[in-house]
Amino acid sequence: MEDVTNGLKDLSVDQILVYLLKTKSAPGDSYEEHFQTLSNGRFKPIFVPVLEHRFRDEPLRALKRHAERFAFASGSEADARRKATNNPAKKYGGIIFTSQRAVDAFASIVAKLDPLKINMLFDKDMPLYVVGPATARGVRALNLPCPVVGEEAGNGDALAKFILDHSKTLSPDVTHLNNHKLPLLFLVGEQRRDIIPKTLESEDLPATDRISVQEVIVYETGEMATFEEDFMGLLRAAKTARVKEQWVIVFSPQGCGAMLNALGWLDEKSAKFSPAHRDVLMGSMEIRIATIGPTTRDFLKEEFGFEPDVCAEKPSPEGVGEGIMKFETQ
What we know:
This protein has 330 residues and is an alpha/beta fold.
């Protein structure tokens, strides 16, 4: 709890608190950096972890073995003495990342590989598909020789369509082995949407365009037992510090109920949002809610009857920041 409230210690007068309901990304968090510089330091971002993530050791050990056995490697290039050859051990035509946790999980594999062999173990033309700027940044930090593409997609549906188009531009040496199209490796948590596999493997596509997807669950996610208590403690500390304005940035449906309950905005009987509860509890203090996209917005509306103040047009630091700034200047 003390670690969470420490962020209030250097709060400047009239700064707007921004609660980021997420775990801070490593090595750097683009949301924190964006809000620290937005509007000349007017906003003060504080992380309030909602979810805890646990890596699955066995799948990660298996993927490490695959990497060491050249599952991601290219064949041998031609030289003066020999022709180019395929890599018979190659298993994948690319890797898909749609979450920072998946990036972190794969980073734990890369960290255990011989750094002198990285360029040998990974095909320099094998695409690493990412869903947005934050994920792209994390993947690039792995320092693999592979191209990182797809960051403009913004969501799984758009990324799947991008992959279908992009794969057609790749050499068969990257996408095929012995005239057989290689699958894409999709690193996921146990809770995920299936839009990417469904789109890439759709029978509505010509057989030559379909791409097999091999999903590997590398982490598990659950709501942190201390989240509601930590968030309530922050709200109390902010009230004591007489903070006038606060924003809560919600990144996923998980934790929405605990967030609204910590705010005291839920009716005890119906477990739905109560405007009367909010008005009584807030007084002169303003607390606004922003979501990073329509999935979380719709969940709040459908489950709790609550309409957030802002829904980002793009699920990115810039998208959230633009939504908040537009609201602030209304």
